[in-house]
Amino acid sequence: MPFRVDERATEFAEIDRFDGGVGWIAHPDEEMQRASHVLELDGELWVIDPVDAPGIDDLFAELGEVRGVVVALDRHKRDAADVADRHDVPVYLPAFFDGVSEELEAPVVRFGDELADTGVTARTVVDSRFWQEVALYDPDGGTLVVPESVGTADYFLAGGERLGVHPMRRAIPPRDALDDLAPDRVLVGHGRGVMTDATTALETALSRSRTRAPLLYAKAGRKLLPF
């Protein structure tokens, strides 16, 4: 299974459909399991960290009209500009993101603690030279989107976890940003979302991040061993 596929997708796998949104993985066979999502808010669509694929616009059309494209992690520029230009909408970036807008060939709109006028709050998860990330939380709909600090792809998970903290964040999990939330579902940037008992999965991931780190690193090490 390839770790990452760089060529344009020829198919996609739909994931995480619920009343208010849907997600997809443009390259279902890649190990990174790069996931993208669209949230429907009052009939308007917000596309988050998209990896483009044929047929995606038909998926959008089932839900409404695209209002904006959001980049929630500085490394997740992905195909945001292409999708935004195709729908004649801006790319929305958190106000503190640095060095991202210059790499996007599309109009850019900045946002702070709230995504435009949607009622969706933006929580700063990481703000450093090497990693800039926000989580998006819709308190009315119960949806939490975390693009990188937690995920469900195999390389995030250890010890029977349904949701795991990123390997590079295991020592310092994002408790300050996330542990007061009680989402109905957690959508992630790598892997399928957690659609049931999501609050428990999130609490477990954050509280046991450090203790399960050795299991995760051991699993990663075994994959590197020659057969």
Automatic annotation (TrEMBL):
UniProt cross-references to SUPFAM superfamilies, sorted A to Z: Metallo-hydrolase/oxidoreductase
Annotated InterPro entries: RibonucZ/Hydroxyglut_hydro
Name by which UniProt lists this protein: Zn-dependent hydrolase, glyoxylase
Top-level taxonomy: Archaea, Methanobacteriati, Methanobacteriota, Stenosarchaea group, Halobacteria
